[in-house]
Amino acid sequence: MLWNTLLLAMRAIRRNLMRSFLTILGVVIGVAAVITMVTLGNGATRSVADQIASMGSNLLMVRPGQRFGPGSDEAAKFKAADVEAIRNQITGAAAVAPVANSSATVVYQARNWSTMVTGSSNDYFSAAGWELVAGRGFTDAEERAGKAVCVIGSTVRDNLFGAQNPVGAEIRISQFACEVIGLLKSKGQSAMGSDQDDTVVMPLRTVQRRLSGSQDINMLMVSASSTDAVDAIKAQLEKLLRERRKIGENEDDNFRVMDTRQLAETLTGTTRILTMLLGAVAAVSLLVGGIGIMNIMLVSVTERTREIGIRLAIGALEREVLLQFLIEAVVLSSLGGVIGIILAAAASIALSGIMNIGYLFDPTINLLSFLFSAAIGVVFGYFPARRAAQLDPIEALRHE
Amino acid sequence: MNTGTRSTTPLIRLSGITRSYGRGAAEFQALKGIDLDVDEGEFVAVMGPSGSGKSTAMNILGCLDSPTAGSYEFQGVHVERMTRDQRALLRRHFLGFVFQGFNLLSRTTALENVELPLIYRGEPAASRHAAARAALKQVGLDGWEDHTPNELSGGQQQRVAIARAIVTGPKVLLADEPTGNLDTHNSQEIMELIAGLNRERGITVLMVTHEPDMAVYAKRVVRFVDGRVDSDHRQEVSA
Ligand SMILES: Nc1ncnc2c1ncn2[C@@H]1O[C@H](COP(=O)(O)OP(=O)(O)O)[C@@H](O)[C@H]1O
Ligand SMILES: [Mg+2]
Fold it and tell me: ipTM score here?
């Protein structure tokens, strides 16, 4: 019976090519839209997470002031003594790197480039997740003496040296000459969209003396020896800094400790909301596709009611007629669903390439939108048919 | 007609069949108590004015409709006590129906239309094709197998419908004004075809017709008037 009914369903699909095509189209558009939107959204979320991971793992950033990001308020900056205290008193910290920033124009022969100069220690490279592709880091002597040596990012290299090896070359930063001792491996864009490779790193002292002219430290980077240690270090840091900055029991912190996980959560939270929004818009198109299917199915009921009457008159059982319609609906919706999934995969891969975000296959959304469209097809193909199949044959035949 | 003293059960026996449409004050009785026996091999023409209940009676005989009251025995089995599925199986195995309006599946070839009842009978593809081709040949549609209804004339469509009705080898062929939509020439041919099925294959035929010309093919004429059997007489077949 199943085989014969399958045959009948296939014949019915072939007989009604236009209707079958429209039904499939409705499903295809809906499924493809939802899957593409959600896949792109997921890819974007993933890219942001990856970029944050590239900032270094288990990293804690301590900044003066409560607001995070540039232009923090007037809270006191950190001093070298703070760094010493942290080094000596915090357990579980793998590296502690002070950071002082200053923007400067760097010159090599006839080329110049304005960039951000970071003053720090050797620990900075490991804490912030930087690798060297050429040259070396700072020696202790260079750090202590505030020697004019620097490690440059790939953007700076490209702009000053082109493809040439920069190690050993002498560049001018503001007023002084500085030897390039290392080249950083490219990290690409940051989660906020800025170019991480547009950077020059020098010993902290060099920046403080020759560029910023103050003893201030803008930020402290502390990397934990393991992920488990992050929370404990954070608590210790807060306690220590409150003491050192003489913050009373009832006063708020005038600094902020942020870890990369937290940052990742904040930023991916944003893209996740965006994904949901896009998904919701696409879901509307799935719904519209569903309504299209519904319409086609309902419009065809008049013709099909007579067809059902003919089948019943010839001796078909009610359940045979229903099974046929069910198979028809399932075949059409599934076909539409599969085409939609393939189309979505193609569109997602193409678009994620253009938008420069990762392509991430999400089985859940594929399955969900497939099931939803199949359900629409089945419900609206099946229920009108069921009503017709329950009529007396003569009533179904009389239907105009 | 006194049916009580018959020794053998007739193929079809209607007793006190009524059929009402509507409810309450709007109720209308299309059949007001029909008694009718039909024996195997008979060719019955059902005549009568329009609205006299001929189609209603035929639909009940064809198990396409259910009577409001009364009993319908088919080979001694009470049809009115059957379930929907049992009636469907009765149609499938014993009855063939030809409608005035053909009722073929559109956009479906003649061959596939004729095959349809065989698919529901679970006939394997090879024997199904052979039987359908043979039936089409019998109604004179050799070579028209792959044409869809809209590529066929009215007479040809009715032939396809007849082929579909007889392809399963039914005991009874029910035809409701089979020539009602056809011209005289086609009507004659369809009547010859139906009479031949009755004569050569012994299929019992019940046929509604308006035209006396068509009734002459039948061995028995039953006249309906106002939802009752008005007259019932046998006649010599002229052809
Ligand atoms: N579905 C229906 N609903 C209401 N009345 C009907 C229906 N079918 C038939 N009738 C009525 O029943 C009577 C008999 O109809 P029918 O059997 O079609 O007559 P005939 O075939 O002899 O012309 C007519 O008066 C017709 O109006
Ligand atoms: Mg009629």
Answer: 0.94
